[in-house]
């Protein structure tokens, strides 16, 4: 039996681009404090389908990506930011090795950022920032350069 070109077998890993785009969907949804169910309702999907998109198990089509960009209030290009080797992405030659997992995609990081953003007192925000830098220095990590 002939296999359709471009289709992957169930045992194959998701394409790194699909994983990255799904991770960006999850990142933005989580930063907005939106559940998978609420996002699915907004674009006419079940939360299970949103889960599959976020894991990269199912590829997101162009029209669906456009719908997601409107609901999540970001440009379509947002979903491709920080992918890495843009030449490999453009030529569809991205390999799993070219994709580096982004620590910003971790749930713990997202929850920390959301909690930080809910702090309204600028002095408390600054103190928390300084505390985090001090803890990182104490643990032997080099703090990232200030933006």
Provide a compact summary of the structure.
The chain is mainly alpha-helical and about 150 residues long. The chain contains 7 helices and no strands.
How would you characterize this protein structure?
The structure is a single chain. The protein has 147 residues and is mainly α. Helix content is 52%, strand content 0%. It has a domain at 16-105: lambda repressor-like DNA-binding domains (434 Repressor (Amino-terminal Domain), Orthogonal Bundle). The chain is built from seven helices and no strands.
Topology:
Blueprint: H1 16-31, H2 36-43, H3 47-55, H4 62-71, H5 86-90, H6 107-118, H7 122-138
What integer is the average pLDDT? 80
CATH class of the domain at 16-105: Mainly Alpha
- End-to-end Cα distance, whole Å, is 56 Å
> Mind summarizing the main beta sheet?
none
What is the SS-derived class?
A: mainly alpha
Secondary-structure element order, N to C: HHHHHHH
Radius of gyration: 18 Å
CATH 4th-level superfamily of the domain at 16-105: lambda repressor-like DNA-binding domains
The number of helical elements comes to 7
CATH architecture of the domain at 16-105: Orthogonal Bundle
What is the CATH topology of the domain at 16-105?
434 Repressor (Amino-terminal Domain)
Strand content: under 5%
The rough form would be described as globular
Regions with pLDDT < 50 over 5+ consecutive residues? 86-100
Number-wise, the strands total: 0
